[in-house]
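User: Let's play a game. I give you a shape written as tokens, and you guess the letters that built it. Ready? Here's round one.
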């Protein structure tokens, strides 16, 4: 028999909201800050002269930045009573107060450009029954958002799955697992290890299924986690404040999903070239990325269909798989 709590959650599925308009247009400055946090030197994002002569005809924004432009910002000001707020309020009544983004699915109609002002059209598409996860017991919430210009042009969509979980139910860390140092510990930070960025874009004829991308090694520090979170307009305190993260059941601050997506965006275009266009991106997060660890990215081509190349990417750290992602990349150079 369905109890009242489950019935109330089910009643929230299908709710939609009026569009949330971004506070500001996309700017070259915000794109540059994103690039600095990610370590991305793609000239399509930062070199006006190069970009003007490229297939893009001018500066573009990184593909995986799509859903950052309408986030509420540091003051977290947005309309109260949005559908997601209502779901969260019901879940909080039962102690499901911690949140982690665990899965995302992006579709891009075209690259975004400086000066464009986006509107987000969100809807709640699913709320799961209680699940037991590695973080604890909680409910998955799916938020589907379409993004349009103010002229009404659809530029992409993002399905974001979040886990709202009860921090009191988090399982203890397995014995012997590295847990990092105390607050203020001066982590030894190894330099990133990345293949030099490709300056020419690959041709589909150069690729075969089963081919591997060069690996990349990226140190994870408290500073890099904070830089990625703020550069992607994500000011959730679990990415910035150790005390807040631990109060919500995390071991330490941890990397946000937009930060992870940005690192993979860079990994793909460093390999494929500056005129490669990411047209779809799907990612599932597993273990969290904490300070003092190292993210190892590896990739493999899984299919080549005309100009569209599909690539699987794995990101792992000392705890296991942090992210499993799949991207479709258009290698047409016009």
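Assistant: Ready! My guess for every position:
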């Amino acid at each position: 028999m369905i109890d009242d709590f489950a019935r109330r959650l089910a009643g929230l599925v299908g709710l939609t909201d009026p569009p949330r308009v971004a506070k500001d247009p996309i700017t070259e400055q915000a794109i540059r800050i994103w690039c600095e946090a990610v370590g991305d030197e793609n000239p399509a994002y930062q070199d006006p002269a190069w970009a003007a002569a490229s297939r893009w005809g001018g500066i573009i924004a990184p593909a995986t930045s799509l859903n950052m432009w309408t986030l509420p910002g540091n003051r977290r000001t947005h309309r109260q009573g949005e559908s997601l707020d209502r779901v969260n309020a019901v879940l909080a009544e039962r102690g499901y107060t911690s949140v982690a983004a665990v899965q995302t699915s992006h579709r891009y109609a075209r690259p975004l450009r400086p000066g464009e002002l986006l509107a987000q059209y969100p809807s709640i598409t699913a709320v799961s029954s209680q699940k037991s996860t590695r973080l604890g017991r909680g409910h998955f919430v799916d938020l589907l958002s379409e993004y349009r210009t103010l002229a009404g042009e659809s530029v992409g969509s993002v399905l974001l799955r979040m886990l709202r979980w009860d921090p009191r139910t988090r399982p203890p860390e397995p014995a012997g697992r590295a847990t990092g140092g105390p607050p203020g510990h001066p982590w030894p930070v190894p330099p990133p290890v990345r293949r030099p960025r490709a300056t020419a874009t690959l041709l589909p004829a150069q690729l075969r299924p089963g081919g591997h991308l060069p690996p990349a090694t990226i140190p994870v520090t408290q500073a890099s986690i904070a830089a990625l979170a703020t550069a992607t307009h994500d000011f959730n305190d679990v990415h910035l404040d150790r005390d807040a993260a631990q109060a919500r059941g995390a071991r330490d601050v941890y990397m946000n999903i937009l930060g992870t997506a940005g690192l993979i965006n860079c990994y793909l275009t460093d390999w494929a070239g500056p005129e490669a266009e990411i047209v779809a991106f799907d990612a599932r997060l597993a273990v969290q990325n904490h300070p003092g660890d190292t993210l190892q990215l590896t990739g493999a081509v899984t299919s080549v269909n005309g100009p569209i190349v599909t690539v699987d990417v794995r990101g792992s750290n000392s705890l296991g798989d942090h992210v499993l992602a799949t991207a479709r990349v258009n290698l047409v150079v016009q």
